[in-house]
Design a protein that fits this description.
Length: about 80
């Protein structure tokens, strides 16, 4: 019985040693960033409308995207009543 356990342990070591390798596999470089992307951040769509609202930095802080203010609405059209000509 003891010889059988030793043979089983030796077979296990032999099988598992085939999986071990000391070579370091080369890591592919990251793809280039797209326009407007910030390296090391994750985009965030907080309201779920499909438009990115901000981004999370590596330390977990949310930063909202600040755009320019919207232009004011056009002035109201002159009424058709009143003086003419």
């Amino acid at each position: 019985m003891n010889i059988r356990q030793m043979a089983l342990a030796a077979a296990g070591v032999l099988v598992l040693s085939a999986c071990a390798s000391t070579k370091d596999e080369p890591v592919a470089p990251a793809p280039p960033l797209g326009p407007g992307a910030i390296a090391g951040t994750v985009a965030a769509d907080r309201d779920g409308d499909g438009i990115i609202d901000g981004y999370y930095t590596a330390d977990g802080i949310y930063n909202a995207i600040q755009g320019p203010p919207c232009p004011p609405p056009p002035p109201p059209m002159p009424s058709r009543r009143g003086e003419r000509g």
